[in-house]
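hey all, quick one before standup. I had two proteins in the batch that finished overnight and I want to keep them in one place so we stop losing track of which output belongs to which input. First protein below, input sequence then structure tokens straight from the run.
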Amino acid sequence: MIGGGVLATALVGAIVATAVVTTGGGKGDPGNNASKLPAPADLPEDTSAPAPSFSSVAPPPPPDPKEYISSADKDRAPITVDGFFPGEKLAMGDRVHIKGATGSTTDCATGTQGALGAVLKNNGCEQLIRATYRKEGVAVTVGIAVFDTEARAKKTVDQASGGLASLSGAGVPTFCRGGTVCRRTTNSYGRYAYFTVGGFTDGTRVTTQDKDVFAVGDDLTNFVFRQIRQRGQVQASQAAAEPAQ
């Protein structure tokens, strides 16, 4: 092994020496390398053309979709029931929910029960949209309350008491009324506060063991969040595509 190492070193030394000799040219041939340069006639005649330049200013970052659903100043897309709850069915994975009655009002308190109506009114609720979905004996009404700022929506959630009033009709009987125990949720995203009230269409009280009620309610909560977020993404994309003023 030692002999092999010495041999390798020697070979490398020989290669280097050969390279030095070749690069330096032979005796009496100082122009050996110079002869490989292009002739003066082959060189570009005009060397005054400017070199390409690149802007040192970084492009602006893309708009934040959250900004477009946090304030009425930027969130200008139409607010409609069909815009938030399109079609006749809602599919979440392998679960399909049938849409029932829908409604929209600027008198937000009329779609609530208990103290929630006063909370919405005091915080400046501009519109309340509701839709009911049903699946195998379970019905859930989801409502979206619209405010002019994110701060008002958050404050509403912090102060929330009572709950959303269920919306019957279109194949769904009256449910979650008259003191029936039902499941209620409260959330907000951007300038929207959203609520659910869900239970059994036969009036059976809801317990923590009733996973079907929880599953439908969770599906609607997740769907509304996605719809609000998508609203911001669409408006942000439109703003990015507009020419700079």
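OK second protein, same deal, sequence then tokens:
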Amino acid sequence: MTLALSSDQLLSTTRAVRHRLDLSRPVPRRLLEECVDLAVQAPSGRNRQRWHFVIVTDPERRAALADVWRAGVATPGASEPLPERDVRRASVARMDRVYSGTAHLYAHLHEVPALVVPCVEGRTDHAPVLRQAGTWGSILPAAWSFMLAARARGLGTCWTTGNLVDERESARVLGIPYDDVMQAALIPVAYTLGTDFRPAPRISRDRVLHWDQF
């Protein structure tokens, strides 16, 4: 099923879905493949197309990956406290719901029908900003396109990074060659309980838009 959404609706209602993931309904492989087909239409640095998508649907491997993610989330210091300016911004989006959603995902991640790990060839450990920008800029647009394509098909997603706390272990579980391929995230994918998502509260445009200088 493809939802009848305008481009503006698609862009403004692709939410981070946690509480409303349908854990009981399998996601057809065909839909996930369609999302990847659209994802790789995204731009990549010098058209190198070094992206990879590891999609995990096997229950045992999902459980193993979820355990790595949970250990990462629970690692002391994995999430730094928000600076005061970020707390003020975050209050617009009701952080209590964000924390509740994370707790829900912590308890149920292994039950999510598909876990998607976008990857890119080439590591940026200790690399200068220019190289980092080129590498991340060659996977993040594709991953976001995947999430938009999923939303258009009635699927919910959420950008998470708990697997990156121990990326080597995550790579071991998935057979990813750690020295050559870098993971970017772990994206749960499932049908949503309802599709009535709306634009989220955001800080005002005049606080983020700068003309000609910062």
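Flagging for whoever picks this up: Residues 59-74 form the longest helix (16 residues). The mean pLDDT is 93.
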